Amino acid sequence: MTKGIIMSGMRPTGKLHLGNYFGALENWVKLQEEYTSYHSIVDWHALTTGYEDTGELQDNIMEVALDWLSAGLDPGKCTMYIQSDIKEISELFLLLSMVTPVSWLERCPTYKDQLQQLEGKNIATFGFLGYPCLQAADILICKARYVPVGEDQLPHLELSREIARRFNYIYGDTFPEPQALLTEAKVLPGLDGRKMSKSYNNAIYLSDSPEEILKKTSQMVTDPQRIKKTDPGNPEVCSVYAFHKVFTRLSDLEETEEACRRGKIGCVDCKKRLAQNLVEFISPINRRRRELEANPDYVRDVLIEGAKKARENAVKTLEEVRRKMNLK
Asked: How far apart are CA 274 and CA 243, in angstroms?
């Protein structure tokens, strides 16, 4: 017996990095052992900000699927699918949009933030405004009771709950109000100290080779006040130490921190220690990925079979929704 149904997804923006792994994927791998898990590659969501350039969309979908499988998501334990393969989601999105006030969508923090951050892009579209309603359809089509999220995503999930609550009030109990499963994520900075992001070109990817990891680690930003090897360092302002806290054994971590503070280890040697630990962590994922890359038909079959399984429940949910709304 499982604890219930969970649903979560990722936009297909290409290969996943360590920030994606520790922000979500690591937790999903654990949760698939306890919950009935649905995970969607949300290609329609990708169009809300990237509709003008879809040339790499299919390749990016495959990259995400490869990383999911190589990192430990198991098609025997969870259901993985491409969002647009479940056409019922689009109909549910349409029907939910009929009962969702525009003011709810306009107050979404991400809507305002993205309009400012992507000021040069023409994203003032109905699809972008309505994406929280599409997100609610993703969750409610599965009748998911839980959604694994970080604290920054709580406002989005609250909107999904409000939409479910409003639908249930108007048409009768249909959807559970999805609750958050807060992810205790390890936070890793990018190579330059900023947030790890593909757009900043500062990420370490799950698919990086040992050579790439060594090269990227050597470029990481360290304590700016430390000029010479013998200068005392401050690990708390060093990106390398932030990684050590995740990838280095506690006993070695304490020794590395003390050596840094006393100026007994240089940044170059410290980075080499980290690179070894990173390679040790990523190598099994990388090996599995290479095996999967050699068998793309298997990866596509996983997504096709996942879509078939997801559609079985989606069809039932949509039939109930149509019946409640007197559409059949």
From this structure: 7
